[in-house]
Amino acid sequence: MNQQKPAKRTTIYDLAELAGTSASAVSAVLNGNWKKRRISSQLAQKISKIAEEQGYSVNMQASLLRREKSKIIGMIVPKYDNRYFGSIVERFEDMARERGLFPIITCTRRDPELEVEAAKTMLSYQVDCLISTGATDPDRITDICHAAGVQSLNLDLPGTKAPSVISDNYAGAHDLTRRVLENTLATLGRLTPLVFVGGRGSDHNTAERIRGFAAAHAEMELNVEASHILACGYAPDRAEAALTEMWRKDGDLPKGMFVNSTISLEGVMRWINRQDAYRLQPPLLGCFDWDPFVALLGNGIEMVRQDVPAMLEAVFSMMEENTQKPLVNMIPPIFGG
């Protein structure tokens, strides 16, 4: 019987040959002390990329023992254009500096390749920890960090290979849905199912919010049609287009809506303002996001605010305790301001 031999394990000498450099240069890059060796950032990135492609990982524990602390910590964020991510960035900078750390932050626009590029660049600057906020593929970033012996943490969206801190999206969506449904009963004299607008059904947070939204309806013995779950993305134009298409098919305007972010809310409000039938009785709204300017829109919009200070306190605690186990810490959101 022919037995297949196990594949040969990649060594630093194999990586050196592929990168066209010395084994000692490869070792310096993987252990995070390449700057002391005066190795160029271009070569460091090339070696890191080859190591990732070859599935090579250094011994994390040994690497951390050899590696000097830079007191630099990195964060990637998907967007700057809403108050939630802006508040994360501001609070993160303050909390890092209070601890004598230097924060580096970059926006990756929900682009998986930009996320990887940002992670590799931050590793080349010898960050002690990298926090992936709202990353599309947090596990991929964790793999890159662990190969370099760097701690990885996830914020806002969870991963399976590193500790994560997220909002309790299910409970927040459930309670927000109940509030808006109760508002429809008080205003219209009857319970009316809501329409869910915004977010991506493929991401964890939106999926959990849809689950909470559906559960609240079920508790009130209301049915939600699948065509009224408009997980169309976050862009205002997509929310507006999705509502237009739903209305074209249904011929009936929704009496209430659950909006999945203030970004989507912009498109929802544009659409509402174009409907003459809403002039006397606008729809009842709830938004899983918070912005003080929303109060100026009128309509008594219910809002749930993610507890950014508590989320970041949990992140820094995990970082300081060097937590490695891929647990998920869920932080309850807050209603109102």
Automatic annotation (TrEMBL):
Q: Which residues form the HTH lacI-type domain?
A: 10-67
Regions crossing the membrane: none
Q: Which domain of life is it from?
A: Bacteria
Q: Which InterPro entries match?
A: HTH_LacI, Lambda_DNA-bd_dom_sf, Peripla_BP_I, SBP_2_dom
- Coiled-coil region list: none
Q: Which keywords label this protein? A: DNA-binding, Repressor, Transcription, Transcription regulation
Cross-referenced PROSITE patterns: HTH_LACI_2 (PS50932)
Put simply, this protein is called: LacI family fructose operon transcriptional repressor
